[in-house]
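Take a specimen:
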Amino acid sequence: MATYLIPREYYQFLHIIEGSLLGYTLKNDEFHIIVKNVDYPDFPQEIPTPNYSDWVKIKFKQFSYLKFIYGYATENQDKGIDNVLELGELKQDDEILDYGGALELIGRRYDLPTGFSIYIVCREIELEFLDQESFN
């Protein structure tokens, strides 16, 4: 699987808002998400741009702050249930990156409205192209 470091000036142009979260992992100071249906900016030529529907692992590396919120509504949609993971602390000059989208597995399987939000301060973001067949 090929992995590419995204230049810092492109961090805010990853548009995951329409994306679907397929999985995530947290390990020390790295937070990884596996997503699909993401709009990507026009990267420099040395970084291939994934297709909208490709499965991609986005690696947020060396984070100093992370707030990850994921939730869903009850079947009647009368109550929202949110889970929050918050690590680290913000400093005055930190640049907070924010991303969000839908929880693919819960939303599709149970037909419930779902969502996730990520607020993160990190040093690097990498893209890893995944082989969707290896997950099926």
User: Anything to note?
Assistant: The helical segments are 104-110.
